[in-house]
Amino acid sequence: MAGHRIQIRGTVQGVGFRPWVYRLASRVGVVGRVRNDPRGVTIEAFGSQAILDRFTKELQRDTLPAAHIVELCETTIPDEDLDAFVIEPSGATGHRALSIPPDLATCEDCRKELLDRHDRRFGYAFTNCTACGPRFTIATGIPYDRAATTMSGFTMCAACQAEYDDVGDRRFHAQPNACPECGPALSLDRLDGQAPSEVNALAEAAALLSRGAVVAVKGLGGFHLACDASDGAAVRRLRERKHRDEKPFAVMVASLDAAHALAEISADEEALLTAAERPVVLLRGRQDAGLALEVSPDTALLGLFLPYTPLHHLLLDAVQRPLVMTSANVSDEPICYENREARQRLEGIADAILLHNREIAMRCDDSVSRVIAGTPTIMRRSRGFVPRPFYLSRPVARPVLACGAHLKNTFCIAMGDTAYFGPHIGDLETVAALDFFEEAIERMQTILEVRPDVVAHDLHPGYLSTRYAKTRDDVTLVGVQHHHAHVASLMAEHGIQGPVLGVAYDGTGFGEDGTSWGGEFLLCFAERYERLATFRPLRLAGGDLAMREVWRIGYALLHDAYDGAPPSDSISLLGDVRPSSIRLVKQMIERGLNAPQARGVGRFFDGFGALALGRARSTYEGQVAIAWDQVANESVSNAYPFEIDRMRTPWEVDLRPAVRAAVDDLGGAVHAGDVSARFHNALVAVTVELLEALWAERGDLPVALTGGVFQNAWLAGEIEAKISNKNRLLRHGEVPPGDGGIALGQALIADAILGDKG
Fold this sequence. Notes:
11-stranded mixed sheet; Alpha-Beta Plaits; 7-stranded mixed sheet
């Protein structure tokens, strides 16, 4: 007989991992014990060497879908004379890691019960077990048990209690366990002045949706606004009421087969759709899918996701059609998550609210993902992923709160060798968003039982996240450059300390030379960086206004490319913009009045797209850039010319030759798709040429591609295909490449800057 101690780290608490280990041990003939400990789970197993080897192999091979093993360490211990395998009480000493798992989609076992007329949970909208259901969004504290959740007010009936106590049952210690006799219940509120007409709230909600109504539906982390995705009039009403002009809506479908009918889906995309996290997945929609054009009016991309709660399964089954499922809010406000709040804020938007009496402790919006150049990538990390930790290759010396960016904000708390992202906050443009940001930080600090000693923030003094950081008392503040943070987040994801060559392409970020950065080649270490190359800046007349009126960026391209005197035929590309507006912008650029200089590659996407597509305005962030990407003709292989000035420090990329060539093409009736392809190919060529030159000068360093522009699959894929050393290329997967990922980088940079100080 032999003995092994197996220590496991990852998401292994609150997901039924110990009972699963118990059942596995019993099946293979191992005796011993399993217990939760402050850092995960510890197993002490005894048996023959062959049995122990099989046990360890199956632990890693056949683990629960809800569990996520990050590290498994095995050591030999003396044999003990035992005759059984037991689940021991959890250890309570030492640093306690966060034991709350993320919210997980309804498992197949619970889905079958939900649809089985002979099961006592048939049609019950709150069915769950240790492999699925609400976790983070109902947790009010740690340790994660029923008393520290919003289920504490529901006393389990005898049948549910027996399941909860039975180590052989899949509901053993499932904290939200409930049934129709003892658990939460649905209700329907009509907001259109009519009284509910049916006893069955779900059936009436389904009937309203079938008749073209907008219904708010309470989910795990907040409310959705739902309507029939095949009904153009219903989708238009939702857009008008929500004040969301053209930004695509996400669509929930009942099954994978239904998703295939609406979109082209690869094996990797299918894996994302069916994962336990159930993110919204961005896919290429089918033209003949039968969805209303109003769902996704100006892009071929379609955001699809599958049901992730029993309520969703029941609702989709009753309606028998795809449903728009978008955050229940007015644009730019946080998602509604409380019943009273929903009744107040959604009046005039929803016709009815399908709600329930299980409270949500923490609002948490849906996650969004996409396969980018063959890599499954999280673009918005929230429900299903939060608060799953990142394990750091170099522990931080003291707890750090990183406040994130201004747009797509997500904060991060790092402590020891773990880092935790908070839920997606969104753009910090309103008081309500700032309140949510502060509330979420406070809750995460409470759950983690930590008050950070260090607060990291962006260098931009006007960001609300920066202003919040400066209100914190008794902390050390560390300002972090935006693009350095982008690169460091990718370094952390891959466990690299540096140096790396970072390529940070995005729309904007506060630069230390007085310009707005976003086309940066950086030599990055954890604590410092050196700027090696950048792009020639454009003047953005009107500042942030130019991001909405993108013709201003198009004109800035023309003004710069033609030395202030663009030919009249190029001005005609600006479409119906009034001559007086063009003259005003010309004066602003030439005088430098409210016309800051910007180097962001995202702004070149906006400017070229505005000229070639005749798109003078953008109704949401990234709209023109996305359209410019999607129109590209992938069969075109040639690129527009460019120049690189290596006499400057840093080197400077000059795209003025590309602008003039594009204007010539457009004047010669070359299709916009060919122009887009040549623009994309020019950016690929610029990036590859600079990387090859920097490798020759600085050595064969890893290259980190980061920033929101690298959500562009063509750009990422073609750079990878054309560089000489593909094995040195790092791209995002678990950490968003856009601003939703930079908080992790901020935390690690702040800790590295302080070193042993602080």
